[in-house]
Task: structure prediction
Amino acid sequence: MFQQKDKRDCGLYVFKFFLYKYFNEDIDINTLKRNIEYEKGGISLFKLIKLYKENNFDTQTFNCSNEELLKINNDEFPLAVIINRNNLKHMVLIDKIKDNNVYYFDPEHGTELKIETDKFLENFDNLILKLSKIKIEYKVNKDNTIVFSKHKFVISFKLTFFIYYSSLLLLFLLYFLSMFYKCLFQKNWKMSYLLFQYSF
Result:
């Protein structure tokens, strides 16, 4: 379920596992693959961050030394990190660092693993990614408008009611016109029928 088939897809499977474990969301890997652009060497970090953003997650990237990684508070995890594997960049997801062990998800194996801290640091590429769910916040102004802070989108209650009642009025008008034309058509048809009878 979470094991990558293509060596280029580690960043996609990390995101899929991240959503599933921490947010109880199950996204189809093919949906992610359809919405990402592959390059010759794989998927660029820039494209991954853009994809995460499109799925309502902000991503912060940090250069991080081995010593700094060990000092990170466990409340900050999970963190996606880049490691070196077979001369390639590979992404894994650290769940926690505890008792001189790193507990992490590796999409190459499709499961969570445990490794001694020193061994993990041998391949750590000193780059971490912090994913945060985008919160859509809003406030109601004095003029009864709603402002969404993330998208700067404003909804006016007055405008909403105006559109609603205008739609009802238009619907009533269309109904009235249809009845009017129906009656008019029937009256003209009867007149035409009478004229037709008297013409012979």
About this structure: The chain is about 40% helix and 30% strand. The longest strand covers residues 88-98.
